[in-house]
Request: fold
Amino acid sequence: MESIQNFDDIVSRQCSVTNRKRVAVVCPADSHTEYVVGRCLKEGIADFLLVCAGECKPEFERLRSMYEGHVEVYLEPTPDDAAYKAVDLVREGQAAVLMKGTLNTDNLLRAILNKEHGLLEPGRVLSHITIAQIPSYRKLIVFSDAAVVPRPTLDQFDAILRYTVSASRHMGVSRPNVALINCTEKVNEKFPHTICYEELKKRAEAGEYGDVCLGGPMDVKTACDADSGSIKGITSPVVGNADVLIFPNIESGNVFYKTITLFAKAETAGILCGTTVPVVVASRADSCESKYYSLALACTGILG
Reply:
């Protein structure tokens, strides 16, 4: 498998496949989702099951006529009904990817996490992974969790680490460098996640995560800038060369996510992990491009 260097590589890979994935989109009522659906149809990236609430945009009827056999439209009375209908379509095997439109993420998660009719795989941890393309950083970087897990337990950190390392390997990184993020380099009981980090490193040394290098606790600048690590006297293969960033909590991960997109002009692509199919739950304020890249990423199956 060829390595993925940027988001164009992800799109090119998906455009080259002959069997398109079918995507169930819940409440596709906003212009960004409409853009993603139209672009993906034009480029042959995916087919769509559009599950609308209350009413459907006239544009979708036009798309159904223009791309006959590649678009189906469903109408449900409420956003919650639309969420459950989309999940049912996935469970019935009619869709291989689920995507959120304008409804609140909590509404979609209720349908996904339904114990009898949801999409969470038994025994797995639900988490969110983001891949970022930052102009000032020389390669794609994977980070988690910016959207789902408030304060990971050791078991959740373990799952998050496995998800992110797997994603990095699928992008062609044979030995991912993983930075365990904290505000300082010290292990301190006042910051319980640093105790978890020590256990993760022990497990890594025992080979539980395969060929991987864990470093930390360390801050983001040290993880991504070799000069910072040199000034601090920190020696680790991870310093200045991180492929993966594991954040201690949702606040730090989400702030990083929003900061790099606003001030560093980063593009992002993210999906849920732990579900039976990839789920795209982009923020309503994310750019059209980020939502497009998220869907292209989900269709490749890299993070599934």
About this structure: The CA atoms of residues 9 and 140 lie 11 Å apart. DSSP finds eleven helices and eleven strands in the chain. The domain at 7-120+275-300 is CATH 3.40.50.10950 (Rossmann fold). The chain has two domains: 7-120+275-300, 127-264.
